[in-house]
Amino acid sequence: MTYLASFLAAHQVVSLFLILALGILAGNIKIMGFSLGPSAVIFVAIAFGHYGVSVPDAIRDLGVIFFVYAVGLQAGPRFFRSIRQNGITFLLISIITLFSGAGVVLFLTKLFHLAPGLGVGIFAGALTSTPGLAAALDVAKDPMISIGYGISYPFGIIGVVLFVQAIAKTNRTKNELNQEKQGAAKSKSHVKTHQYVVTNPNCAGKSLVEIDFHSMSKAIVTRIKRGPNINLAYDDFVLHLDDVVMAVGTEPELRKLEHLIGQKTSVDMESTRDIIVREVFISSTKIAGKSLRELEVKELYGVIVTRLWRDDIEFVPTGDTTLELGDLIRVVADKDDVQFFIGIVGQEERRIHETNLLPICIGIVLGVLIGFYPIQFPGGFSFRLGLSGGPLLVALAAGHYGRIGKISLRVPYAARYFSRELGLLLFLASAGTSAGGSFVEVFQKAGLPVLALGALVTTICMVAAYIMAFFFFRLGNLSSIGVVCGAMTSTPALGVVTAQIDSESPTISYASIYAISLVFVTVISQLLALLH
């Protein structure tokens, strides 16, 4: 054992990948349905650190940057949208939930005379927030933070899972599920397809370009049925009374068409041999970065673009929508026109997964520079975002805007996933070995108080989130379950719940609050580390 420890201590690269391999294996082990996932790496690293193995600090910094930048790119499209769409509701829930936990940590660490670093780690561990741990360690290089995280993390996972499972089994939840099933079934996508009979005499005898539906609704008219014939909705097509119009859009936009065209109907509008529907990936750099209006897809290529998927977000494109590499679009057109259009936009899968590293490198450099810039406050107090906050801020902006001029900031999902997971593992390995030297001694002295405080923080935060969501904002039990999972940044809890109940309400509310809480828990962890 002594020889092995000496060998590993002398060969840091071998030690690093051995820690990662053993951590991944341990994380895949499930006990009563629970697993630690990637976070198991920190426990393996703590064991290695106890025997003198270390990982260079540069590896930790690299891991932090990779991880938070990928997280920012992932959260960016939803973060600002969540604040804009849901107003103050999810923002307030997130702030009250997280600050209640931070307040308990500050009060009880001083009351029981615990090391301040332990309190910071307890907060991040109780919320199972690795970004919070990374942010705290970036501000205060204190191994106690990792120890507090490691001790409080397991209950942070198990406690939230048990809590939301208990809520899911209540009669209140069952009643809401029955109401959902009795009502209209919610579609997985908010984008729907409806058909309308032309009964408005103001539409009869006018072409689609003359009527100009786009000025009144963001829905897209795709096909028109006249008698037995199905026609593509080109601009010069003239509507007649009793024609059946098919349109794609969100429910509010489609309702506008009902007033403009006529009552809803349901008839067979499946494509004929001449008209086909295809889903096409954008892989041509000549197409990427241009809007549908610039490309004139309908006028030049004869195709109608009805839907667009970017990563896991689906929406109805407009003329101002800019196409990006990797976008998946649904087009309707004659068979020959579709084949010609595919040849133009490209269908090379290799290009879809290519990653432009230049904007990533520039974004990281900019993020690091912002992170090290001191922000001055009255009274001489200064604050900096650090290696986690700076890149996170830049990545949030990059994920939200998607491009600067002709430069695309988009990163394919596979590249983001790899960067996030690799960065997380590198960071956990370094943080764990750094904490390993004093972990046993600290656990023997303060293990039970730290464990109890971590469980208390987890309990207070998730109860606060549920009370705010259900009793104060009256979001309903199903949505409140998702709010608890999102406010606690607990993806495992959401996975357990969605497997248990047949409803999308928890997932929708989880997605709405998760990105907000992810950012706030990172900032609060930094503030706690500064106060320590």
List the helices and strands and how they pair.
Blueprint: H1 2-10, H2 12-27, H3 40-50, H4 57-86, H5 89-111, H6 116-126, H7 130-139, H8 143-168, H9 171-182, E1 191-197, H10 208-211, E2 220-226, E3 229-232, E4 244-250, H11 251-260, E5 264-265, E6 275-281, H12 292-295, H13 297-301, E7 304-310, E8 313-315, E9 328-334, H14 335-345, H15 349-352, H16 357-372, E10 375-376, E11 382-383, H17 386-401, E12 403-404, E13 407-408, H18 413-472, H19 477-487, H20 491-500, H21 505-531
Antiparallel strand pairs: 1-4, 1-5, 2-3, 2-4, 6-9, 7-8, 7-9, 10-11, 12-13
Helix pairs in contact: 2-3, 3-18, 4-7, 4-17, 4-18, 4-21, 5-6, 5-18, 5-21, 6-7, 6-8, 6-18, 6-21, 7-17, 7-21, 8-18, 8-19, 8-20, 16-17, 18-19, 19-20, 19-21
Please, could you describe this protein's structure?
The structure is a single chain. The protein is of the alpha+beta class and 532 residues long. It contains 21 helices and 13 strands. A hairpin with a 2-residue loop joins β7 and β8.
